[in-house]
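Notebook p. 47: complex prediction with biotinyl-5-AMP.
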Amino acid sequence: MTKEEILNILREAGDYVSGEALAEKLGISRAAVWKHIHTLIKEGYGVDIAQGKGYKLISLPDKLYPSEVRYGLQTKLLGRKVIHLNSTGSTNVVARQVAERGVEEGTVVIAETQSRGKGRLGRKWITKPGGLWMSVILKPAIDPMHAPSITLLAAVSVTKALRGAGLEAVIKWPNDVLVNGKKICGILTEMSAETDIVNFIILGIGVNVNNDVPLETATTMKAELGREIDRVKFTQSLLETLEEDYLAFKDKGFTPILWSWRRYSDTLGRPVEVTYQDEVITGLAQDVDEDGSLLVKTGDGSIRKIVSGDCKHLRGARKI
Ligand code: BT5
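Predicted complex, structure tokens below:
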């Protein structure tokens, strides 16, 4: 894309580049260069224009534009294609539409805000500007039954990325990442599948970064670290970690991911109350098995396997 090329030339030059030099380098007219510069300015890039010197990039917008997320991104698969929306209903819905039309694996849909952010089971995900709201399209060759593994995998990757940013993140089964006992990230995995093949998986990840969140039970990276976070850098680090874990999963299966999950889990070893459909199961969270189900040891000593549900950590609990 020419606009992105102009941007990257200016970025790398770190100084004024003349319209003539840009035009020559890209094989376009100076008028066309000016048009692209004008668009960049409209998108929020700060460009200084000096007579006789040309254009100089002086500031970047606080937006997760493809040109920002892709610049310097160290991945082969995830985020090579980024669809950015200033606002939309839900990135998971857009990603599904895009995936249904056929798109390469690893395509990412990012929105600055969502008007109908989705949680699980019809719940709402509160989305304000300044967070990371994205959906990644994956096409793993797995049995649809094993799709929950992708949620656990993503929880591991988010935890690692948050730890890389200096936060003591832990995982609450199945899909929450917590910092200081408060939810900082939620994951919503949806899929399109036939009896025994997955067509695609939409991995929706919401991370509270610099946004406000009006919930007692929630926190943000900014609140925990006491400063604004570079959203582009964090998004890149998350995509890189996610790709590493996803490729390891494709190559070696779920077991290595499961070991990481156990290491970061705040659920295992705790008394828990899990609501699954209409049933409430209370007991000790013993382990997670190969398909991501939680194994709970109940009062009568039996082990219940819970494929999905809502998990509450009970008070007075102590980790083993
Ligand atoms: C989730 O559901 O945690 C999945 C959230 C997935 C959000 C991403 S954003 C990008 C993509 N596009 C979407 O439309 N969705 C995905 P669940 O486990 O059901 O948790 C929902 C509950 O979390 C709500 O009922 C609230 O209690 C709480 N909650 C809502 N917004 C929150 C926020 N921003 N931060 C922390 N907790 C929140």
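Notes: Residues 231-252 form the longest helix (22 residues). The domain at 2-59 is CATH 1.10.10.10 (Arc Repressor Mutant, subunit A).
Next step: compare against the earlier run before touching the bench.
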